[in-house]
Amino acid sequence: MKSTRAYYTVRLLTLGLFLFSSAPFMAESAILYKNYIIRQDQGSDILCEPYTVRKNDSILKIFIQKGEIAPSDFPGFLGIFQRLNPGVQDINLIRPGQQIIIPLKKVTMNALPGQSSGLVTLPFVTISNAPDMLQPHTNQYQVKPGDYVAKLITNAFGAYGSREYHQGLKLFRFLNPDIKDINRIYVGQRVLLPDPSARNQSWYSSLFDVAGNLNVNITSSPARVPGSVPREPGPFPAEKKQPVSPLSSATAILDAKLLNQGAYYFPRPGRADLKLDLSRLPIIEFLSGKRILLARENTMEESDLQIVSSFWNDVKIIRFSNDESIENILNAFFQSYDPEASKYRLAFSDRGLEVKVQARWVVSRLADSGTKKRYTCITLIKNGRERTPDSVVRYLEQHGIFIADILLNFSANAPESAGLPGIFPDHPAVINSQEPAGFIKELLKAMSYPYTENVTIKFPYAGITVEALSNLVTRNDGSPLFLDFGNLYGEAVAAIKKAGMEIVQITKNDTPETTVNKLLGPLGEAFTQNPIFHAAQREPKYNTAIKAPGFLIQTQKATKIFLTPADLPAGIMQLLNAQGVKIMRDLSARKGDL
What we know:
The chain is an alpha+beta fold. It folds into four domains: 18-28 and 128-207, Membrane-bound Lytic Murein Transglycosylase D, Chain A; 33-120, Membrane-bound Lytic Murein Transglycosylase D, Chain A; 245-337, Trna Endonuclease, Chain: A, domain 1 (3-Layer(aba) Sandwich), CATH 3.40.1350; 429-586, 3-Layer(aba) Sandwich (Trna Endonuclease, Chain: A, domain 1). The chain has a five-stranded mixed sheet with strand order 20-30-29-28-25, with helices on both faces. Strands 5-4-3-6 form a four-stranded antiparallel sheet, with helices on one face. Strands 9-12-13-14 form a four-stranded mixed sheet, with helices on both faces. Helix 8 links the parallel strand 13 and strand 14. Helix 5 (149-157) crosses helix 6 (163-175) and helix 10 runs antiparallel to helix 14 (570-578). The longest helix has 13 residues, at 163-175. The chain is elongated.
């Protein structure tokens, strides 16, 4: 069929998923939690829920469904809403995808755990049948040639590496406990796939804790698919997995669509229609209608490209050679979206931290308010271990910075991010450096040094043997080190040293730096003042760096201790925890000491 306008033919891949309804789910008890935020309004703490506007939503509909302020004092509720959402100029004009804050109730000071931090995690609901809730949103699927788990989850939940992708992957693991290695699924094998429709349910976000892990016990056996026991492949070699295109990930980051199947046709007077084969010349299409055509050399004549441009005034053609690197292609793509994409370097201060975010590309967009910019930081990574941890991703999102790491050569066998589990308590140990005896005791305990208080030592003085009380640290080589907190005076210290015993005196007037220096020097331990922590396991050039006030002690026993006066955000504590750093917060450190 021909016309004076271009027409488009698309070939869709149908997965042929079938609703699973026959196999029963085992009940699993779980307490689901939900994250809320605390905002200040006219001197009051307001418990609020971040909310993403959905299709057919209205402010009135949302008000009716949530909170206790609206029914009791609607005009007051409306005023609070408008003050907390300055970007919403007209409450009758909200659009799907817009981020808003819903005030739920007024709370008194310190009424909720974590209230002073601005982030509150509360029980949402206790259920005994979490798998039953998921059952209507689960599909049975028979593995086809070319399938692998990452591909199936990406098709349903979003770009590889996104938060939605990781959630879908965790649900897949839960639904298929018999699959021990998700990199090994076989043609003909039946699996259960989570359906993205679950994301629209009110309870969905509560399935995951603040670290992104499932609250439901993943080691249980929620369901079995008939014939789903993995079978080893036959005598034929295992099929090679096809890589996921970095370009697909890049387009998803900018809410664009990659069209690489099907064809466009353009009429040419007196000649056959010009066919634009999208498998050879893919197009990136933005929500605004703008298009980018990727034209590799020798795929289309220049005159034909001009015909395409004559029909589409909003198209930009990126030309590149056959041996062009994917990094250069992506560079042209991102700079066509934001000419300054390679020039941004982002930095901000938070609770004494100096945070610097560097990426290969940083693209900016106006937030929903239309005035404040939000930034997306994009970097190519070689493997999953180089990915920015989720705790840091969530932390940066609170500051309007979004991290997008794109795997350069991803395959189903690409290693996942290390993502070490936390090995220390969620809250740091609290110490007071202005109380030297207690401070030193706790620090030595954290460093795994044997320490004994009120030890009697004898030493010669003025021709007689004198006894005194001190405190004993046993060093790594077994030699003793005595600590005095002001109990010894005059020539006694000199006499002890003359007798061959090493002693360190620490006073209340010593700054934290002086105290740490006095202690660690004789122990043979070193420390770094105001250390810099990198978020990801990759080169600093394209990494997030957090400079924090305090002392990082790395002992000879490979123990890492961070002594800091800062009230570290939860995301940064999780990062240090995963890096094996034990945090000790010094509540008494004076400003300027560190």
